[in-house]
Write a structure and sequence with these properties.
alpha/beta; 2 domains; three-stranded antiparallel beta sheet; binds pyridoxal-5'-phosphate
Length: 370
């Protein structure tokens, strides 16, 4: 069997930065969900994306949950949520006993369609409390019209930037346009802490409140006293040490992901019926995964390619299955024009692992050409 090629796997620094921070935590016995690595990771991360404040949490999902809570989303409120995404975007809406309404993507960004968003804001006037957009695969949504709509209709904008660390919109980092942005450091993301997440905002008071909720909402008292519902959502000092080391190589990882995208595009872009994911002029993409669609009138389907690559020990995936097609979410309203259905039916995520060599990339391209 030839060497396994992964979709996107953890890639620690060659320099061993992560181990230095982990060793420091061991030597000082800060093996806990607090400590210097947590505090420093928050500061370094906030600096990198260019925002005031950050709270390091146990996962990106926890970050979305606390962003919704910080935005005041509760029982019966409506959250307008991008349909084309991973379920982790939408699940926290249910944790808060709120109601998701799913919005389709547009073909130019693969992310939330601003026209459909406005329709939904009109339809759910007064009940819509927040808008939850996603920057899928490192493609940025078209933020200007979305930010404008959220201001016009007075709803909180939350950006799920789990896949877009290192992605900029008109020179400003994704995840910093809304009131809240969230990031993920799961094992498959562009950098990883094995598992973890970050909530960012320019609102210092809300971020402080988030840290409070994430540590069981312990009131300031000698005894254990709680005036609010709490969660155990803080990032561990060990994981934060991995994150600090990974942050030092983030720009290298972005450069390699972009290289992979350009390699595929050059090799495969001319094949009949193939279209690569759209990288717009306003978007400097981290190219987290290189994705394409195959015209439905072609004989070869994405599944044929996935199965063929799998036979050669190479991992690839379909595009996310939209939330409005998920059995769990089927009862909720959906405003759509068919774009996310099309992307799900005809899309393919190519292996985009930063450890891939040119020979690996060429092997994948040759198999697809076959
Ligand atoms: C990975 C991911 C999440 C969840 O992050 P976790 O850290 O795994 O909880 C949320 N949204 C999107 C779009 C993701 O890709």
């Amino acid at each position: 069997m030839p060497k396994k090629i992964f979709l996107s796997s953890p890639h620690m620094s060659d320099e061993g930065y992560e181990m230095e921070y982990i060793n420091e935590a061991f030597e000082t016995n800060w093996i806990a969900p607090l400590g210097k690595n947590v505090d420093e990771f928050e500061k370094e991360f906030a600096n990198y994306v260019g925002i005031g404040h950050a709270a390091a949490l146990s996962s990106g999902t926890a970050a979305i949950h606390l962003a919704l809570k910080a935005a005041g989303v509760g029982q019966g409120d409506i959250v307008l949520c991008q349909s084309l995404t991973f379920s982790a975007t939408a699940n926290p809406i249910i944790y808060q006993n709120a109601i998701p309404v799913f919005i389709d993507s547009d073909a130019t960004t693969w992310n939330m369609d601003p026209n459909l968003l406005e329709q939904a804001l009109i339809k759910y006037k007064d009940k819509a409390k927040a808008v939850l957009i996603v920057h899928l695969y490192g493609l940025s949504a078209d933020l200007d019209p979305i930010v404008e709509l959220c201001q016009k209709y007075n709803v909180t904008l939350i950006e799920d930037a789990a896949e877009s660390l290192g992605t900029f919109y008109k020179g400003k980092h994704t995840g910093t346009f809304g009131q809240y942005g969230i990031f993920s450091f799961n094992g498959n993301k562009i950098i990883t802490t094995s598992g973890g997440g970050m909530l960012v905002s320019n609102d210092q008071e809300r971020i402080a409140k988030t840290r409070f909720w994430a540590t069981q909402a312990r009131d300031i008292a000698r005894h254990y006293q709680h005036s609010e519902l709490g969660f155990n959502y803080r990032m561990s000092n060990i994981c934060a040490g991995i994150g600090r080391g990974q942050l030092k190589v983030l720009n290298k990882r972005v450069a390699k992901k972009q290289y992979i995208y350009n390699y595929y595009k050059k090799e495969l872009g001319q094949l009949p019926g193939i279209s690569f994911m759209p990288i717009n002029d306003f978007n400097t993409s981290n190219c987290w995964l290189s994705c394409l669609t195959i015209d439905p009138d072609q004989k070869v389907k994405p599944l044929d390619i996935m199965l063929y690559l799998e036979e050669h020990n190479i991992e690839s995936r379909p595009i996310w299955k939209p939330m409005h097609l998920q059995p769990f979410f089927k009862e909720y309203d959906y405003l759509g024009s068919g774009v996310s259905d099309y992307l799900f039916d005809n899309g393919l995520c190519l292996p985009s692992d930063t450890k891939m060599t040119d020979a690996d990339l060429q092997r994948v391209c040759d198999l697809i050409k076959e």
